[in-house]
């Protein structure tokens, strides 16, 4: 017996035990409402999605073709429509997640208005967005099941037993729109206690996976901007521990932590690490500092000096009071960061790179895997990259190395539309198309995400609509460019009243008041024009 039918029987028994007082309660209606609210709390969601993510990680370890993907979403509606589209086009939500970008929270969800990605937005807005995303995903479940319940009633009324059984099977095997969210906690928004408190709020809202970066919290910069400042490993590991304690306290024992390193593009540190003996973690961190050997006679008032092997070394300190790393050490620092994080509680890695290059990523991952064989990455397929130019230049270099005549191409100007139909452009596009598959196989990338896709798509579609609507096209710009496309492509939102819950509400009213219910979905509802 399905859970749906078990609930009907259980509620029928409850009603019978109440005598006549519950006669107005229809057990099947109550069972339907229960099915439409599968997840009662955010912690229920976190437990459910953590198990999914752990299984996905195991699947990837067994076969790199089983990588996972997500798109960043800045509003619950955007996340909802993404998952509805995935189910419609691909039949399942398996291996598809949501990404919550700190950049988009800062740019789009702060009460201060648009802010740069520097952890200046309210920390509570991060947890609030997680809750909002899951509220909309749960509503997508409710809407889809409501449509199945209506179809079930229609099949019964028509006496179509075969169709009734088919619809009942869809109800019993309904796949939820609720999927894992990888949630960006930036650099932790303060000290480890602050990180722990915010992590708790995020987990309580439903997050099963939290991404934490090794920048200084009060100096945090977007990973694709200059001026990034990292912290010694001990500081970062304390925050990883804080997140793990938050998961354990709330009963999410298999919660996932993504440790992000910005060291590849970060040339500065705010502090010199504590070291107790040569070769320890603090000493390794300090070894990357740009230093000059000095004698006591060379020392100036206020100098900071390190003793390494009996030599006095003065780290280069900038007017900002930050210390500088040696040039060319970024990759080595990244590798050390990653190994250290995995050995101290992190589950996945995030290496912020300056370009999408499978070879560059693989070179670092292979070094990490020499120490931690099952190391896996979450990778940002960033809109900050000029994908077209990057891959055309990569292909240009490959063709040049192969001895091809490249005199027809200007490497610095390969973005030009003049090259769109060339062999080089076609090869580059194919490499972009297969980038995720190739990087999953060759560079240990378990999860591919795009941080800001819906930010860009919203801007592009709004620009196109505004151009026509406020120009010569007028209303045709909307009808031809939006509504007609919705109808022809089967976009559910063409019935926006239904998407907002109107039909669910009507059915509930009928549960509550029977024939006396005042419903919105009658013959005069203009939504009926859409069939």
From TrEMBL:
Write out the residues that bind Mg(2+): 184
Q: How is the cofactor bound?
A: Can also use Mn(2+) ion.
What CDD domains does the record point to? ICL_PEPM
Q: Which residues cross the membrane?
A: none
- One Pfam match, by short name? ICL
Q: Which NCBIfam families match?
A: PRK06498.1
- Protein name, entry field: Isocitrate lyase
Q: Name the source organism.
A: Marinobacterium aestuarii
């Amino acid at each position: 017996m399905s859970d749906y039918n078990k609930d009907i029987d259980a509620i029928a028994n409850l009603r019978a035990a109440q005598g006549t007082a519950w006669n107005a309660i229809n057990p099947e209606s109550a069972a339907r409402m229960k099915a439409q609210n599968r997840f009662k709390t955010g912690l229920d969601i976190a437990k459910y999605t953590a198990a999914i993510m752990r299984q996905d990680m195991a699947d990837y370890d067994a076969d790199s073709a089983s990588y996972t993907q997500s798109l960043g979403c800045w509003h619950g509606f955007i996340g909802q429509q993404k998952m509805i589209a995935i189910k419609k086009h691909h039949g399942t939500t398996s291996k598809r997640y949501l990404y919550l970008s700190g950049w988009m929270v800062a740019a789009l969800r702060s009460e201060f208005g648009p802010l740069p990605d520097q952890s200046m937005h309210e920390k509570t807005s991060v947890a609030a967005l997680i809750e909002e995303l899951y509220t909309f995903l749960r509503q997508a479940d409710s809407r889809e099941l409501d449509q199945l319940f209506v179809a079930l009633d229609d099949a019964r009324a028509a006496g179509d037993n075969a169709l009734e059984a088919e619809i009942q099977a869809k109800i019993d095997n309904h796949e939820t729109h609720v999927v894992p969210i990888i949630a960006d906690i930036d650099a932790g928004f303060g000290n480890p206690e602050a990180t722990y408190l915010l992590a708790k709020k995020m987990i309580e809202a439903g997050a099963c996976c939290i991404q934490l970066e090794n920048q200084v919290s009060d100096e945090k910069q977007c990973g694709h901007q200059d001026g990034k400042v990292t912290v010694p490993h001990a500081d970062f590991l304390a925050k990883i521990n804080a997140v793990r304690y938050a998961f354990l306290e709330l009963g999410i024992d298999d919660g996932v932590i993504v440790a992000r390193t910005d060291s590849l593009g970060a040339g500065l540190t705010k502090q010199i690490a504590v070291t107790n003996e040569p070769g320890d973690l603090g000493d390794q961190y300090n070894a990357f500092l740009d230093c000059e050997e000095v004698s006591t006679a060379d020392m100036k008032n206020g100098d900071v000096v390190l003793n390494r092997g009996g030599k006095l070394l003065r780290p280069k300190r900038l007017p900002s009071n930050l210390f500088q790393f040696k040039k060319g050490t970024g990759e080595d620092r990244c590798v050390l960061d990653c190994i250290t994080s995995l050995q101290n509680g992190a589950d996945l890695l995030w290496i912020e790179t300056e370009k999408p290059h499978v070879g560059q990523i693989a070179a670092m991952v292979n070094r990490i895997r020499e120490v931690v064989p099952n190391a896996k990455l979450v990778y940002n397929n960033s809109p900050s990259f000029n994908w077209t130019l990057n891959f055309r230049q990569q292909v240009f270099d490959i063709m040049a190395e192969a001895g091809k005549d490249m005199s027809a191409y200007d490497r610095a100007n390969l973005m030009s539309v003049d090259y769109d139909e060339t062999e080089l452009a076609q090869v580059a596009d194919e490499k972009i198309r297969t980038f995720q598959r190739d990087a999953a196989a060759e560079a240990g990338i378990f999860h591919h995400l795009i941080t800001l896709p819906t930010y860009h798509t919203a801007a592009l579609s709004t620009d196109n609509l505004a151009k026509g609507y406020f120009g010569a096209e007028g209303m045709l710009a909307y009808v031809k460019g939006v509504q007609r496309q919705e109808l022809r492509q089967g976009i559910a939102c063409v019935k926006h009243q239904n998407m907002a819950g109107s039909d669910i509400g009507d059915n509930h009213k009928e549960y509550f008041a029977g024939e006396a219910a005042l419903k919105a979905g009658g013959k005069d509802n203009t939504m009926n024009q859409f069939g």
